[in-house]
Amino acid sequence: MITLDRLVDVLAGSGARLAGGARAREVVLRSLVVHDPSDPRPTTGDVFLAVGIDAPAEAVALAEQARATVVLVRAPAPLEPATSAAAEHAGIAVVLADPEASWSHLTGLAYGLVLEGRETASGRGPTDLFALADTLAAALRGSSVVIEDQLSRVLAYSSSDDGVDAVRARTILGRRLPDTVRELFAARGVFRHLAASDEPLFVEPSPAHGLGGRMVIAVRAGRELLGSLWVETATAFEPARRRVLEDGARTAALHLLRSRASADLERQVESDLVTRLIEGTGDAPAMISRLGLPATGLRVVALQAHVEDEQHAGVLLTFEHVTTGFGWSRPGRSALFAHTVYTLLPVGDELIEAARTWVASVRAGLPAHVGLVAGIGGAADATMLPASRREADECLALHVARPDLPPVAYDESWDRIVLRRLRAVAAAGRMPERSPVAELRRHDRQHGTHHVATLRAWLAAHGDVGTAAAALDVHPNTVRYRLRKMDEATPLATDHPDQRLALIVALAAMDEDGV
């Protein structure tokens, strides 16, 4: 049970304070409503969050319509005397929050306090979606209920198993709607209906799929689809049960919003700490401790994901997946930066396969149509994470070029990364334009010779003409002849170790150009 006094005390830590109105500080708050100008349906609640309202007078008027006990509005203090008088007359306490305060933060605090304050002694209260599913099932005369998110993943289900069909059993066991049934619903236009309408829809049975009848309704916050609520039934609901279903969808939306607001706050804190660590700013040991990670044996894993025709959906799904669950239930800590998810993974100094196994588990947890590539940085302690991040980025680029291969790890691919850096130098125009290799390349283009290929094979063979000839599939005398012609075209000085090394580097730098 939460009182006005407790709500004000907690919000005060975020710059909010009780500014006026008439309510005893001991009044109990049992419900909450968020202002939504796009939803004309009347809503009521003890706490009214005036999201999008800048004028306290307007917020008080809306709170009165919602029969609220307290209104939270972002506005500078003090409260105008006329507004204070109107609030006192309506019996509404006015809490003013700093205009710079984040609504997501304020909403998360308010939802957590008001809704969790109503939990039962057993811990199953209104914030428990399973309890909500049980309550709905009872109100709908024992029908089985499943609550899913917008990707058809199971969030909660009722404990009733009377008349459970095969699809419900497979959905609960697999934690998501089976692909064959999802395809059936897509063909019938069920998902189009959920995206566009708040009206309940009856889904006809399909014995071939093991599917009984269903009533389904969208769970929505404003225009945003949060999920769906499914109820087993042989026939369409009559008006009374349709109203119960509609009320249930609105209640489920409050739970999902509160859960997301709380999760988003936790993700933001985690993401900020990880970002500062991989950028090398701040007190690394202290931040690692806050994240609950060991100070050594860490690797940065860089992940990118894509969904056809959707620029951001893949990476957002990946970030949500790797940050879902309590800290102790997942091994890494992650940040979303631009189009890349960075995860700090405690896998020890040598365990590359442990990192690859984790990447495979992320891949398995994403929908089948999401493509995933990854790069694994070298082992590092807290202070060396920026270097591991750079290595992960370069390994990621290699995996993007060859996504059919396993995720690239720095320990096994440092040579390819060195060559990639050389090519980047060449691409930036920082390689000499009149080097022997550049001259031989121009000669090949102008005269159709094979000087560059011959020089590369000879250097790879450490000057052994026979080995180079075998690699080129020519006679050894041909290699000797070409070497003489090369020396005529440009002085090679192949008898000098530094010159030979420079030739090898220059050849490696131009490999991506197809030479």
From TrEMBL:
Superkingdom as given in the UniProt entry: Bacteria
Residues in PucR C-terminal helix-turn-helix domain copies: 452-509
Signal peptide annotation: none
Coiled-coil portions: none
Annotated InterPro entries: CdaR-like_regulators, PucR_C-HTH_dom, PucR_C-HTH_sf
PANTHER family the UniProt entry points to: CARBOHYDRATE DIACID REGULATOR (PTHR33744), CONSERVED PROTEIN (PTHR33744:SF17)
Protein name: Helix-turn-helix domain-containing protein
